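Journal club side-thread
Mid-discussion, someone asked how the predicted structure for our own chain would compare to the paper's figures. Pasting it here so we can look after the session.
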Amino acid sequence: MMRYFKVAVALMLAPAALAQHPLVEIKVAGNRRLAGAAVIAASGLRVGRMATRADLDAAAQKLADTGFFSSVSYRYDPKPAPGGGSGYALTLQVSEQPATAAVQLDIPGQDVERLWQQLRAADALIDRHMPDNDRASAYYKLVIEGVLRKSGHPEEIVVENEGNVFTGKMGAVVFRSAHLPQVAAVRFEGNAAIADGALQAAMAKVAIGQDYTERSFRRKLELNLRPLYEELGHLTVAFPRVNMTGSGDSTAIVTAVIDEGPAWRLGKVVLKGDALPLADMYEAGRFTYGAPANWKQFMKTVEDMEKVVRRDGYLKVSSNPVRSFQDKTQVVDVTVEVAKGAQFLFGELQIEGLDDATQQRLAGLWKLPKGAPMNQYYTDDFSRSVLPSLRGKYKTFKSELHMHKDANVVDVWLKFQ
């Protein structure tokens, strides 16, 4: 989510009054990612120009309004002007907002790389990553619209937040055209393994009636059709061309060309990682070697292997499958890179919402000792075993794992209401 934030704008170590004299020198302090020249340009101040206290306040506020800074302040000191007379040396003190959000430009008819060059030439604050806040988005929007207008392509731009479907976190800030055709129909060419009806059903719910750009449509293909093909072992499926034709002033018929590629069979699976219980993990995995490489099932099997180390306290284990395709045999070998992470130990059991006698009884049934590796699944197994005997004593139940901030220790809370 984009968010608003307050920016401190202040005066630092300045004389009591500022007469109207020229700025002899302007410096920037505190900047890390942004060039000093870019910050000065964005402030609107120029060396040689007259400046009053009100002018400097306005410049500081102008920088704050960009959304690029968490604080902006300034100081000035007397300094002789070239050719005689007096002037001021100004220092702009800034603290930058982190640029954590990737920026995507999705404007039909525009060469994206050329547009990036034009944006950087127009305003050096603009880059491919930006602060994640509404002021910065508004600033980008104005710069993009200004560049398009100057190049003879006036366009209203809207801002969208694009989430990362794999992490659930912010993926990118997308700046796209406000007025786009809507998808009226989707057609396919080159498909054989999956019939048109199944493909259209998968795309209808996410594409029909939605605004069309090639970038957004391709993203829908990747998120909605690729998984269907990968379940059949077509791991190298590609969508080489997407064509759009108009069916009216504001609607589009989109044709996606599909290169299904071969149905790959699963070859060798190798686990890599430090101190892995390989025998137990392979036993838990039981991959279907030689069968079509159903990737959905493969990832479910990887999850089953991870359970082996999660039971031993490695709650943040992660796996990265790396595929190696053998074209001659149409076999895919996979190396699964496993990072166990830190081992967590069990701390305390907390039970609330029941009478004291029942809580003491449950505590006595709990067999995971303090200091033992935190078995992620023991809590679920314990809950299933004791809940039937507690009918009538509670309406709702939930269990929570509370990780200590300063140690790899986990407390378990059983909450009844």
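Post-session note: The first strand starts at residue 8 and ends at 11.
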